[in-house]
Design goal:
Length: 509
């Protein structure tokens, strides 16, 4: 029960890169062994749950993907909300109790107050800590706008936040009741959040904004949706840029230096490289225990970012907000209803997104049009491929068993720093991206039909296994389908490309 409460309200993975202990004492070694064992157990359990989710996703009667009991818990997240779990009562009590300023001062803690935040901390004064209430106040109007919150419920809202380096002083001041669930980084209720200090200024702010998002949703909406949505939204809104007194929530990091300690893109890239990328359907099916690990935070963030940024899916994604106040099953039925027509395409695009996830990812320039192409009427056709876009549909359908000559010409820009880089379809041989020359022309024949189709992501999209065309090659598709083209470049660096290629596709007689 305790574990459920912890996870329901985002205790563990409200985490970024974990700091590495450097202590080599016997106790530290024993601690480390214990942690390794715990992690191994947790990973085994996660794998078992993933297998169970995959199995359940294939059952024909399945409607709401989130209605998947974990091996140790058969109740839904919704049930848990109806019935406060052990620890939440203590948390709510602590949130409602008037602050004892004398006890706070006696414990050597500082209290910093703004319109919407009362921050109690044992951290010494520093600009990055002392400005947190100001940062929080700047986040509030952005939460109201984006989450369409009722202003009257937020106008007088003042969240109590404890930011702790040493827990003991907070216990002494009555701010960390013993009934509170165990948590690793942060824990949120409507009226109060608890945060452990973090190694970077960025991640400390991020964690406050993450828990603040939960608290704002609980306060104004009563609930925050199923686990992937609740945690994904908190991560999405908390990923921010803070510069020159201006706060921007929902910021897509342009490089690693912008969000030190966050590591969401790094986790997703490493998972993909190791063959462990999580299909979108499995992210949507996360149960209330999934977020004990860091990886589900990365995938939940990625899913919300993808759905809210993709030109074809974002408008419908916004409509989901209206269903947050319903139980999780109704929320997921609404999601299914909104995306029913292109669920397969959405899952295939998720694969393309995950495979090319980079800092500065450009959603506009990488959106894929899956419309099936048409047979070559006169045996040959020439099309234009833009250098500054991701996969482009040629409109040409190739037939299995036929061999085609594909030839490309053109000169186009593939970078503008430190100087303009020009490329031809053979690519720039002294610069590489993902193992191939930068700028080289790639092609993939995507079989007709629903693409990846399967609910759990099915087989990899053909767009994940391109062939190199360069200046020219022969293509003999094993399956009939539409041929797609793009030049080889990072999806985060399309903005500095310019120009076109002319590509001729000709059936060999
Ligand atoms: Zn959370």
């Amino acid at each position: 029960m305790l574990a459920i409460a912890v996870v329901s309200f985002c205790a563990v993975g409200c985490g970024g890169d974990e700091p590495k202990p450097r202590n080599s004492s016997a106790k530290a070694i024993a601690d480390k062994k214990r942690r390794v064992n715990e992690r191994r157990d947790a990973e085994a359990e996660l794998e078992a749950r993933k297998r169970e989710m995959r199995r359940r996703l294939k059952e024909p009667d399945l409607v709401p993907p989130n209605h998947i009991p974990s091996p140790r818990e058969s109740r839904t997240f919704a049930d848990l909300l109806e019935e406060p779990a052990e620890g939440e009562g203590a948390a709510d009590e602590a949130a409602e109790k008037p602050l004892d300023d004398a006890a706070i001062a006696a414990a050597g803690l500082r209290k910093l107050t703004s319109k919407h935040l009362t921050l109690i901390t044992d951290l010494p004064s520093s600009p990055a800590v002392d400005e947190l209430p100001q940062v929080f106040d700047l986040a509030v109007p952005q939460w109201i706008d984006y989450l369409k919150l009722d202003r009257t419920k937020i106008d007088d809202w003042n969240l109590r936040a404890v930011l702790m380096k040493d827990k003991e002083q907070f216990k002494a001041a009555g701010l960390l009741p013993s009934g509170l669930p165990e948590f690793l980084h942060g824990f949120a209720r409507a009226g109060m959040v608890w945060l452990h200090d973090q190694p970077t200024d960025y991640y400390r702010r991020h964690l406050l904004l993450h828990e603040g998002t939960h608290a704002a949703m609980y306060t104004a909406l009563g609930r925050a949706g199923p686990p992937w949505y609740s945690e994904g939204m908190a991560e999405y809104l908390a990923t921010h840029r803070w510069a020159d007194g201006k706060l921007t929530l929902r910021h897509f990091p342009r490089d690693r230096e912008e969000t030190p300690g966050l590591g969401r893109i790094k986790i997703a890239r490493e998972e993909f490289a190791a063959g462990n990328a999580t299909p979108l359907a499995l992210v949507l099916a996360y149960d209330s225990l999934a977020h004990r690990q860091n990886e589900p935070y990365a995938w939940s963030w990625a899913a919300v970012t993808f759905l809210d940024s993709h030109p074809r899916y974002r408008e419908r994604f916004g409509k989901l907000l209206a269903h947050v106040e319903q139980d999780d099953a109704s929320f997921n039925v609404a999601l299914r209803g909104l995306y029913e027509a292109d669920l397969a395409a959405m899952q295939e695009e998720w694969q393309v997104f995950v495979a090319s996830l980079e800092h500065g990812y450009d959603f506009e320039k990488t959106a894929v049009d899956f419309t099936p192409g048409e047979d070559l009427a006169s045996g040959a056709a020439t099309i234009t491929v833009a250098a500054d876009r991701g996969w482009q549909n040629s409109g040409i359908r190739l037939t299995a068993g036929t061999t085609y000559n594909v030839a490309a010409t053109g000169k186009y820009q593939v970078a503008d720093q430190p100087r303009v880089w020009w490329s031809e379809p053979g690519g720039v041989s002294i610069r590489y991206y993902q193992g191939r020359p930068l700028g080289v022309l790639l092609a993939a024949v995507r079989p007709d039909g629903d693409g990846v189709g399967e609910l759990d992501g099915g087989q990899p999209s053909a767009l994940l296994q391109p062939t190199t065309v360069g200046l020219g090659t022969e293509v003999s598709p094993g399956q009939s389908g539409t041929i797609f083209f793009k030049i080889n470049d990072s999806a985060g660096e399309l903005g500095d490309n310019w120009g076109n290629l002319m590509v001729e596709v000709r059936a060999k007689s």
